[in-house]
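>> received
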Amino acid sequence: MQPAHLSRERAQGRDFDAGLRRHMNSVYLRMTAGVLVTAIVALFVANSPMLLQLFLGGPQKMIVIFAPLAIVMFGFNPMTMRSSTLMAAFFGISVAYGISFATIAVVATQDTAFALDVAYAFLTATSMFAGLSIYGYTTKTDLTPIGTFSVMAIWGLFAVSLLNFFIESSMMTNMVAGIGIIVFSGLTIWQTQAVKDLYYQVADQEMVNRFSWAAALNLYISFIAIFQYVLHFMSQNR
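>> returned
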């Protein structure tokens, strides 16, 4: 027979592993819900000329484009905000992205070839994201340096993208898309590992719930970015 203390330790380990699996599943389910909300809103707005004009028919489209960034920076703080507020902010970001993506949905409904590009880009992004997340979850290597570099690189990409918004250089657009896929791939594996590591450090259930929404948001944004960049290359090569 095994000593009683060894049996208790193994039982606790199994319970902890089950808790971690539930935590990771919760994060991915929330992220998936955000992607679904984005897709539904994009299709809904795309099929309403009134809403298209309201949100994207003039200078107000800049508010829609930068709304997700504003919410992330000023309305999403898991250290101080309750989980219910974080949930509302998360889905607010998902809706804002959906409104922005309505332009993609409009073209897709009118152009079958582009609709296929969107479908292939989504499947490619999903496959990439799944593989990257599995690696981030299973690897024993500390991915913190990759995460640090990726975060710094994102700010660089944002600055270059903002500049390119005005000069509209196709070469710069391709460069941003290529680098963006690499950067957000690195961010995905690091974020996945960070979600796992944080679970071991946080004991309070409310804090676990708060950081679950934060993790879902981080992974959601990475997935959306990878999808956009992949779609850019697929539509370019059509």
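>> Confidence is low (pLDDT under 50) at residues 1-15.
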